[in-house]
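User: what does the whole thing look like in 3D?
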Amino acid sequence: MAASPHTVEQLNREAIPRARWLQAVLHFVVNRPLGAVGAVLVLLTATLALTANFVAPYDPLSTDYGAMLSPPDAHHWLGTDSFGRDVLSRIIYGSRTAMTVGLGASLLGASIGSLIGVVSAYFGGRVDLLLQRVLDVFFAFPVIVLALAVVAILGTGAGNVILAIATPMVPRCARVVRAAALSVREMPYVDAARASGFGHRRIILRHMLPNVMAPILIMTTAFLGEAILLEASLSFLGLGVQEPTAAWGLMLRGAAVEFAETAPWMAIFPGLAISLAVFGFNLFGDSLRDALDPRLRTQ
Amino acid sequence: MAFYILKRLLAMIPTLLGVATLIFLLLRVIPGDVVEARYLTQGSQFQSQDLMNQERHKLGLDKPLWRQFTGWMSGLARFDFGLSMWTSAPITDEIKLRFALSLQLAIMASIIASCLAIPLGILAAMKQDTWVDYSVRVFTIAGLATPSFWLGTLMILAMLIFFKWVPPMTFTPLWVSPKENLALLLWPALAVGYRYCAVGTRMMRSTMLEVLREDYIRTARAKGLWLKLILTRHALKNAILPVLTVISMEFAFLLGGLVVTEQVFNLNGLGMLFVEAISHRDYTLTQALVMLVASAFLVVNFMVDIAYAVLDPRIRYR
Amino acid sequence: MKSFARVFALAAAALFAWPLHAQSPHYGGELVFPVPSEPPSYDGHREETFGLIHPIAPFYNTLLRVDPNDKSGTKPYPSLAESWTESKDGKTYTFRIRKGVKFHDGSEMTSKDIKASYDKIIFPPAGVGSSRKGQYADVESVEAPDPGTVVFKLKHPSGSFIASLLSPYNFIYKADILAKDPHWYETHIMGTGPFVFVEHVKGSHVLGKKNPNYWDQGKPYLDGFRAVFMRDSAAQVAAVRGERAQIQFRGFTPANRDDLVKALGNKITVDESPWDCILLVAINHKKKPFDDPRVRRALTLALDRWEASKALSRIAIVKEVAGVQVPGTPFATPPDELAKLAGYWHDAEKSRAEAKRLLKEAGVPDGFSFTFMNRGVPMPYEPLGVWLIDQWRKVGLNVTQKVIEPAAYFGALRRGEHDVAMDFQCGYIVEPDLDMYKFTSSSRNPANYSFYEDPVVDKLYDQQSQATNPEERKKIVREFEKRVLDEQAHYLMTLQWHRIIPHSSRLHGWTITPSHYLNNTLDTVWLDP
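Assistant: Here's the predicted 3D structure for the full assembly of 1146 residues, as structure tokens:
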């Protein structure tokens, strides 16, 4: 279960020369073609999100009641929706929502989770026991209730969706990181740091956390795809991001279902966008996991 | 062994207590209550504050929090969940049919996931790093990446347009009419099972790879695929265990978490009931549901642990 | 557009064809219909959702009902009361109660039961919920001088009293049961209606079978009915399309209608009607700059309602441009005159220019942003929310939407947390008293979510309520409307809902009305073999 310290160190050497990075990338592409495909999809999504204002042919909010529900043509490549808004532009802007929520939620979930995991492993004893019991409770707690409750308490909107998605990720990340950190705790350099009288905070942040980076990175990439999918599901249920913001899950809600027969482009393209993006993140994350730590794959 | 089982059983109690406390508090933090949900619906211009306070009194919502909490705890200890605040009907009545549906769907989906994961995983391992391996991974990861609400909508629409077929309107228990029952549940079970086979396939592939790396199998490498399979048969038994574990871990989630799938396939299961109960602020029903799903999770975990202890001597009597 | 023409042609054809082959009703068969929500309890006096009416109303009768053949859904019609008289001073109403009506347990229904039921509605004992108590604030007493007579005494004359007795929620319960336990009817069903309760499987369906001893000889025609609970609207449509269900009584969307007509041709008949429900926009007078009537008027002037009527009626269950009364009903303002109100002009450009001018005059900067609170209900809240925000964007207002889940929504409105918010008004009958109460000052009306005090509005309301001459009442209603929607722009109206019921052509004897609460007793409904 534990991360091997060797791979961990390799990953964190700041002094790795540029050429070796390039080599590593090449190595990754050749040995893991699927991972490379994933990486391309991830890059594509990220680029679209960053450059949406330049790439999108239309303003994603501008309605045109004269062109409601028009099929794909030269003007609107992917057709228009029930308000005459350009579907392609909304998909492009939707990548922004997906990336913001996906990155936000997985970073938030992973960082809180890892902190809890490392603290739990570092202190051990009663602190560990108590934290583990609390995590057990969260594990047994139905995820959907947690998400619904967060949304019901805080309301909808991107920020709250990030929280709602990150919450159930915390215990999962904490558990994995704790397992990794337990073995790091026994490493001589942590003992040494303790012996030389460093404070707990310094040891945790400087010595423990960097050495469990590999599992954290793996968890984060694994969460990313999941977070994008969860965001889409929440928005589809009306509990996520709200109109008129462009978001993929939102585009599949309401009119897309109603007009699925007469205007299928409204349902098909945003669905494809979600699938491709999540597919990319999963493929990439999967290969990264293999590359970084072969032992973790059985956890 | 008996001691170990007892220890694991007792360890569930604090977790359940924690879950009970958490859901109790969470529900009270959510703004609004069942009385508001009932009476402040439409225009409701004729609604008096008086009436609402009377209703709150009747439901015991005006009692101090600790009194409400001890009341709920003592009910819990007696396995008495009480009445739904929304419908005033016994909670067991509310849950019964939905639980049957969700349980069956979860079992069917788990079986489908296992049936996909085990052969696919073995195949991928046998043909490691070939196009077969890659296709298996693409196939399973695509399942994980496709939003179930989207896939479900497309599935239903396709059946409607091409086969003019519409699923039954209501859930009929399997023992009443297997045909009606399966007509309703087979499609969602396939969609969900496909979705959840990815993790199992991955696990199967990697354990299988480890088995294949063992010496005596390497020597058989030249002798063809089937021989290899036969040789590894006994090793497979141990390799399948972790696959079943990951799939059964999902089980509790499948029981109460398939909100979107239930919505798209028009199933009245526990997932939708969760959404309804929370949106009605039906404290008693939500609490009971949470306890039900949490217990299911713990029981499955417990059984997996026991299975390991029995099958794998190294873990015994931790 | 072609499919629309087809739908209307079909609807019209159905309408004209009806009297031509007015076949005699066919007996037998089970009516199956999806219901989008499950009843919270069985007590009609307490609940206010169609989720109770659709599956439960067939088990009961009311004192009076709406004429089951009247498309306007406003004509009083005898039910358990055979006839009624009004005293000269308008303060006493005497009802003659039908004889020989039996409850499903075999006991005789008398005036005692009607008194007990109305006492529970109007003067509920402590701890008993009654949603419509406030509607009968004018009633002084209900008396049952003999088994065949019920007398209602009012404090003052009221033009809308009979209309208030048409409420489909006012089931007549058995007095003896209510005396023993006033909560009994929350969890049990026992009435005098055309159908007898068989079972309610939670999360699945309600089943009713024909009442063989029904007082109305020869009715009901159906052997029974099955109300199936289906949340998802796509599944409801699929059920009708797959001919597993014959009708859904709430209403489908325009897209659903077109799909059904395309798939089923003449096997489907479409009934349409304006719907006595409307989404309004509440503008919180307690928040700046919305205390300024110029800003509120700008908000309504920004809306191009006529364009929306054309566009949104393709994608949402709304259609008619409306004032404070359902278009086409006796007290409604005709379209030409309506077009004179702010925000109802046909010239959208002029209207928007005026909106911008007013905003500027009020010192609201271009690109001013505020939050619009909406309710998390897909249809038609969502499309109308998108529309409103888009319209306001066109006069330089930058609006973000905050969506609150349905259960918490009106609680949030009551707390007044919003700047501008969607509000909802829906009635079982079109009647100025019931429809316009919403706009009276917040001191007398807790559902005024714009939070204003306007004595002029209140005075006009009382005047129209007491006006005995319909023409005079019409005039006051018009004045009221101008005050609320134009001069002060206290509230603004979106579009009137539009009810679309595509149903199996096998189904007869049911009339669409402007309310999805009406005509659900099912006694007159029959199915072709």
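In plain terms: The two ends of chain C are 34 Å apart (CA to CA). Residues 2-20 of chain C form the longest helix (19 residues).
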